[in-house]
Amino acid sequence: MISCKDATELAMKSAYRKPGAYDRLRLRFHMLLCKFCKLFQKQNTIIDDAASRLDEFAPKQMTEDSKKRILKKVLD
Question: Domain boundaries in the chain?
Answer without folding.
Answer: 4-75
